Amino acid sequence: MGTSFPLRQGSKSDMTSPAHSSRSAEALPPFLYPLPADTEPDWLKDLRARAFDIYHAHGLPTRRHEAWRYTDLSFLAETPFTPSPSVTLDRNGLESAEILSFSAPRIVLVNGHFCEHLSNLSALELGISIQGFDASPPDSVRSALERGSLSRALDTFPMAALNTALFQSGLVITVEPGVAIRTPIHVVSLALSSHGPHFSVPRIVVHLQKGASLSLVESLGSLGAEPTFANSVTSVLLDEGAHLSTTRLVRERPDSSRIETTLADLGPDARYDNLTLVFGGRLVRNEVYATLNGAGAHAEVRGIYGARTGEHVDNTIFVDHVAPQATSGQLFKGVLGGTGRAVFQGRINVGRGASGTDGQQLHKAMLLSRGAEVDIKPELYIYNDDVACSHGATVGELDEDALFYLQSRGLTREVARSLLVEAFLSDMLEVVSHAPLREALESSINTWKQDVLSAEHPS
Amino acid sequence: MALLEIENLHASIDDKPILKGLTLAVEAGKVHAIMGPNGSGKSTLSAVIAGRPGYRITEGTIRYRGEDITGMDPEKRAQAGIFLSFQHPVEIPGVAFTTFLKSAINAQRKARGEGEIEITEFLKKIKQAARDLEIPDAMLKRALNTGFSGGEKKRAEVLQMTVLEPTLMILDELDSGLDIDALRIAAEGVNRLRSPERGFLCITHYQRLLDLIVPDVVHILVDGRIQRTGDPSLALELEERGYGDFIPAQAGQ
Ligand SMILES: Nc1ncnc2c1ncn2[C@@H]1O[C@H](COP(=O)(O)OP(=O)(O)OP(=O)(O)O)[C@@H](O)[C@H]1O
Ligand SMILES: [Mg+2]
């Protein structure tokens, strides 16, 4: 397992950062390598050094780590991944990726690198700034990366620490105070394997200033013939009264993996809606950590997922109520076929000062076959008396009575199954108000659903 | 040749025999009523005719229009014109009633080699049927049977039947849960469908339904077998005397 990784392309082995100069490459855990000492500002060097140390001490998570008990990453260490080179993609390449198709300003990242020729930012409204970076992030990310809760989170999220130590490229989105951006912004972030298996560490930073609002749509996936592993982090900073709505589609290929960590900090009366659809992938972990730091903040973390034979989908959600009168909801629905595997870990923390908290959590899974499995771990930690919290989980199968009823009207068993799966998921998209986006999501769900059902019962 | 011919049918569930040599024929143009005590196997018979999985047919055959359908998939039977009005219609949240009914019509048309129904024709049909059955438009927009009252569910079954235009209709306790007015409306809906080509198997406990849907033949089903077959006066006799006379020696206590 002690795979060592070559240095990033373009960096020379003698260019080690002073902070890590004492460590030899052989002793490093998988995926970690020292960054060259370059012109980065001190605050970033310090942050990276801390992140480096955290991941170095922790290593690639194993099932012995409580937060990773149900998700085994050992195959990642056994695959000869190398850091992804700065590659580009042409329009045909982009077409072949399964991304959401609807009309919106679009930003394309490939292995984290901003691809200007595939992006279309001509219709941007006033008050939003979108900046791709390719060597080192601009100073505008500092407040988000240094924000107490987001920086402290690195101690708990080793994969986010790994990303923080290494990321070179990504995207910064900032919305100015009081600006409501009306059109959704579509971020397409793809992992591409060009010569052998690649891993990438893209970083996205979203900062909505006081009273700003934005709807962000993300299509995340992969391309190429070889395995990819994206260890991606999105930092979300919401100032007072800001509202970010993130709608995400993760569509990985059978040999591609992704650990997608979202670290969000919500100020007073801020609102964060996150709806993540995950279909497929050798391993996908959607990890969302939302800290409700301001009174009256609200986080709504939702997800739809599907896993088939050879696929493992993990949703690990942690909502941390720090401030009083804040509310949160978690709602996940998943459909598993074949020998698909899924994990749902939902945690609600209510701190001492978080009186008046309302935190809800619900997870429902539907198993289409006997071989499918889902591990569910709800956790409530409550240190305040004045709270209303609840959690629930159900695991069911397709209802045989309903199937027979539909068949008795002339629908084939296949169509009946499809209708029931659709019905199971039907309420999840109600929160998506932008009709073209909702239709694009429906069509992704349908494509996946037809695949999974025909795999269950090949005709 | 009768529309439906059941011969010496034995069916069991979880190795428990329910139908024990049932023989019955329903001719086109006729309404056959089946009466029988609770648990005698009436719903089992209707489920087995419609092809519900989970039953083991250990002996006997079911023929529909001369064809043996004993092992046929339920959707094939529906496509061939068999319709079961459920004793307990299933609530299916998330599936819109109208969308479902359109899919069902189109599935049946496809099986007959016909194209999809024109949307205007479909809407006209469903609206007309809803009006006749006094079903409000709002109900058509709801999820299939979900939150429908007992009586609404039964009228929705008759609406489906009206729109799908089947040939053999099995009505499993159409009258249960219906108030007096709703019973009359539903029965009129059924009577509108009566024609020389169509046959009905009308399962009920009560004469009041048979006053409205007047049968040609009445069967008494006890302990998994037809114990007696007669004209409509048999139902009246039953009303007066109960099932006592029809319980076979080894089954009664
Ligand atoms: N899934 C099942 N498992 C075991 N026994 C069953 C099952 N379904 C039905 N039965 C039994 O089969 C017998 C016949 O049931 P059925 O529903 O056909 O009766 P019925 O004549 O329709 O009664 P009712 O008048 O009450 O509707 C009953 O004893 C019932 O308990
Ligand atoms: Mg019954």
UniProtKB/TrEMBL annotation, chain B:
Domain of life: Bacteria
One GO MF term: ATP hydrolysis activity
Keywords assigned by UniProt, alphabetized: ATP-binding, Nucleotide-binding
Keyword Thylakoid: no
Domain named ABC transporter: residues: 4-248
Gene3D superfamilies found in the cross-reference section: P-loop containing nucleotide triphosphate hydrolases
Homology family: Belongs to the ABC transporter superfamily. Ycf16 family.
The protein's name: Fe-S cluster assembly ATPase SufC
Source organism of this protein record: Phaeovibrio sulfidiphilus
Gene, per the UniProt record: sufC
